[in-house]
Structure formats: structure tokens, C-alpha cells
Amino acid sequence: MTTETARESANTRDKDTEQRGKKRPAWGWRVLGLLFGFVLTVGGAAAVVVNVVQGAQATGLAGERGTFTVAYCTDNNPSSKNSDYECDGGFVPRGGEAADRRSGTLENAGDYPDGRKLDVTENMVGSPGVFRETGVGAVLASLMWMCFGVIALAAGVYQSRKWLRSFR
């Protein structure tokens, strides 16, 4: 046996001994970590997809654009400091006439006065008759939530890979 072969054999034995000597987390913790990683991955991916669609709508690239006239607004969360307004009113598609008007709900709205006209798009995700505002603020909000989704997606992939390796 040559000295090089003897060194390689000794190094391999040392690595095997190190692997056997390492303590791994209990089986239940590994499964729990893997499940947590999977949930983070799925939740992050869903947040990215939903906010890409909503961002495209907020820019006006997707969905039917038009004008929404506010009839009234209500706060769905009056007991909290953070208000959650929804406004009901009428939607007229771009280039349409008053006869094309249909009623609907503007979600994630502010406390707008009656009769205010807003540029909106009809939601592609969710119920029909639900509209979202267009503009810079709506685009930035979608971008922010999409970034949170990317972070959750990356953390989920990391966690899943980490705990999946512990089963080897």
C-alpha cells in the first residue's frame, strides 16, 4: 500500500467516524422542520403569484379598466386602529356609457366621499364585481407584499432542504 493510498484511507475513516459521531435531531423534530419548510414554501409561492397578478392589475396591464363612482364606504374593522374600508358603487368600463354601468365593490379602499370617481380594474382573482384601484400606490403595495412572499419562499426552500438532508 502506498503512502498516498494509506492517507486517503485514513481520511475516509476519519470522515465516517465523524458522521457516525454526529448527533442528529430526533425524528419528530426533523419531520416538523420539513413540514414548516413546506408550508413556508407554499405560502411564499402563493404570495408571489397573487401579488404579481395584483401588481399587473394595479398598473392597468391586466383586467378590464374603467371608472368606479363611489356610492358609500364602510369600515369593516371599526374597533381597531387600522381601518379596512370597502366602497360600493358603480363601474363603467373605459370607453363605455352610463348604460354599461354595473354595481360592484372597491376593496382596499380609503374613506372616499360619495360621488368620487376613481380609476380601477376589475379583479381577475376572486369574486366578479370586485375592483382594485390603479396607480403608483397600488403598484408599490403589491411589490412590497411580493417581496415578503419572495423572502418566505426563500426561507421555506432553505428550511426544506436543511431538514431533508437530516434524513440521510
Give an overview of the whole structure.
The chain is of the alpha+beta class and 168 residues long. The protein is built from three helices and five strands. It has helices at 3-21, 27-59, 136-165; strands at 65-75, 85-93, 102-109, 117-122, 130-133. It has a five-stranded mixed barrel. A hairpin with an 8-residue loop joins strand 2 and strand 3 (102-109). Helix 2 (27-59) runs antiparallel to helix 3. The mean pLDDT is 81.
Q: SS-based structural class?
A: alpha+beta
Order of helices and strands: HHEEEEEH
Q: Look at the structure and give the mean pLDDT.
A: 81
Strand arrangement, largest sheet? 1-2-3-5-4
User: DSSP helix count?
Assistant: 3
Strand content: 15-25%
Number of strands: 5
3D shape: elongated
Largest sheet: 5 strands, mixed, barrel
Query: Which consecutive residue ranges, at least 5 long each, have pLDDT under 50?
Result: none
> What distance lies between the first and last C-alpha atoms, to the nearest angstrom?
32 Å
Helical proportion, percent range = 40-55%
Rounded radius of gyration (Å): 27 Å
